[in-house]
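Re: the request from the purification team.
They wanted to know what the chain is likely to look like in 3D before they choose a buffer screen. I agreed to run a prediction and write the result into the notebook, where they can find it.
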Amino acid sequence: MTVEYSGEVASLAIAPLTIAVLKGLLNPIMEAPVNYVNAPIVAKERGIEVKEVKSSDAGDFTSLIRVRVEAGKKSYQVAGTLYRKKDPRVVEIDQFNVEVVPEGHMLLILNIDRPGVIGMVGKVLGDNQINIVRMQCALEKRAGTRCSSLDPMRSSRTRCLRRSNPAKTFSQSKSRLCPNSRAPSIRSAMVSAPPKPRLSSGQVPSFRERSLVPVGMATILPHAAKQVRRLEEQLLAQVNRWGYDEIILPTFEYLDVLAPGLEPELIEHCYQFVDRTTGRTLLLRPDATAQIARTVAMGLTGATLPLRLSYRTSVFRYEQEHAGRGREIFQVGAELIGLDDVTSDSEVIGLMIECLRTIGLQSFKVSLGHVGFIKGLLMRSGLSAHGQKLAEQATARKDLPRLEAILASEHISKMAARAIREAPELYGQEEVLARGRVLAAGDPALAAPLERLAQVYQLLCAAGHRESLLLDLGEFRGFDYYDGVVFDVFAEGMGAELGGGGRYDHLIGRFGRPLPSTGFGLDVDRLFRTVEFPEEGSVSARVDYLVAAPRRATRLLTAVAAQLRRTRSRVVQQTMKGSDAALLSAAVTAGLAQQAAAVVVVGAPGMDHDDVLVVESLAAHGHGRRTGNLSRLSKKMGLADLVAAARRSRRQVKERS
């Protein structure tokens, strides 16, 4: 196999790209998975010789990668590039010049170039209810080129390239052939989704194409950022008072290291990329709990147990564009590791409740359940392993019609199906536990989870949380690693959970020594949308002082600002343009723009270095600035007096808080 790198790409680190080519080549033909780590080893074992060739000349392209594979007397090659540095295109397949978007399902057909072939292909696909989104035809690289276009059916785009003399042709379309279809000289087939529409000249690009921020991501502007940080600080302060120490987790991890703690569905929603140094696959953090489990299992937190850890971080998961949530999720959470009793369960839930009350949230419900109860019902019913997995997923989403369909397809007993259908609808207070015991019918595998749940519920009620609790025997969080008491928290006005958590006694064991653990995570973005913040008019000044000076007094400006900052005041500094006569007016204008509580002017004409002009209660005096009364509103102070007044003001603020 030869990989040719031409143009700009030849100057980059090409080793990861070559490994990616090997992985793509070997994966379809190997029984065992081929990844970025073992691809070179598998290739060597199979006697595949790999050559890398670099060239500065990419012809009509900025960069071009061509892969040539030789087997005996046969040779195959494909070449690709990037348009606008982001849109991939296959531009050559064997001896055919093409322009193919490498997405989804793609059908390749080799046929004799004669009248009626393309029409026959279209008829075969149409007869089988397969729509052609795009078709492209090309001849082998010979002679001149003629170009024509046609639209054989609705919502399709077709481009045809014809050579002047008869030859083989290549055609590509988004479709598939049914087994009984007959097409002339079909020699190969492969599967591409319809390409993104290309803009013609003068056509205005859509909002998404013009957007500079990726879908599902957000820029948090200063005012909101201040509120978000305040939320996080309040939550972490509460967690800290319960004895939890903050841990800062890495933004990305090796996939093969973290994978044991992640379920396959979550791995599919991870953002993955290749480590340029090692060639191994990295992924952006998809789950903080799995990272903490890996950290503890590696012994990085020491041997002392129990461990109480907290975090504030972002997790990254691919979500459908209209799924109702972002792809970067801000979280604050806590994990209690090394204890397995009802007091540790109630501690974590009680801590989460106190966190919510700390940020001013009073009306919310914590839904409590136990994974063991619903899993026990499913196992007892005789469902197949696959059916049980599907039923768990449907139960987690409260998708009762889907659950009903799964139960009907498995042909289990009516009594077992009735108990499973009833469980997701069992929610309320103590009466729920009584009904659960009836469904358990003395089965120890079902009675034990109910007893554990009842004990946790009683402890939380004794702590004064009864009004915030709701028992839900169908509670089943979406992560496979939960295996005990689980919980979600909901609030009025928010159609999704604010957070949740539960017990995961076996997760750390996937990385090493098993340790009983429980914890929770809160979605900061959803909390932000739920909590009421003070009205804009009640917000205090953005800064305490704006210190201003003419350009000739920049050294004095810096010295005065530094002294005020030592008092713990928030200070901005600015040099003023213009005449000395307009110095005070310009300084007050700048202070109003910066939302400063007071303006301090240094270096004014006729003033000593130890004196300053001060305009206080700036917002109230904004009208005075426009009517020329600034000289009466300002007062002359000694710098030492100003600093002393700033210290007194900070002490008063601290005492009030």
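For the purification team: The chain has a mean pLDDT of 81.
Please add any questions underneath this entry.
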